Amino acid sequence: MLVSNLQTNYPDIKLHRQIGSEIDAVVGRVGIEAKLWLRKQEADRLFSQIDTFLHDGYVDRILVVLYQPTPQWENYLNEKLARRGWLQRQVRVITV
User: Fold this and answer.
1) Distance CA 2, CA 19 (A)
2) What domain count does the chain have?
3) Which helix (H) or strand (E) holds 69?
4) Bridge partners of 65?
5) pLDDT tens digits, residue range 7-25?
6) Residue 68: domain span
7) CA separation for the pair 62, 59 (Å, rounded)
8) CATH number of 28's domain
């Protein structure tokens, strides 16, 4: 649903771009990464991916869309992002 909506509204969107590791979508210089049922292992991997995506310089900002995350691990991810200074600056987390 996310991908089809993005493709409809942003015909120039690039999906599944290889940026060191794979990012779900890129609109301009904004990366979009979607995760379903976030737990600790996925939160740690996502944090590592965000680090790679931002340091590669290919994207300036990342929108993280979390579907049905476990609140404990969503908070864990947000705390890690905040400690790095990314939360609400370069990284926005949206829960669906």
Assistant:
1) 20
2) 1
3) none
4) 34, 94
5) 777 777 766 554 456 788 8
6) 2-95
7) 7
8) 3.40.1350
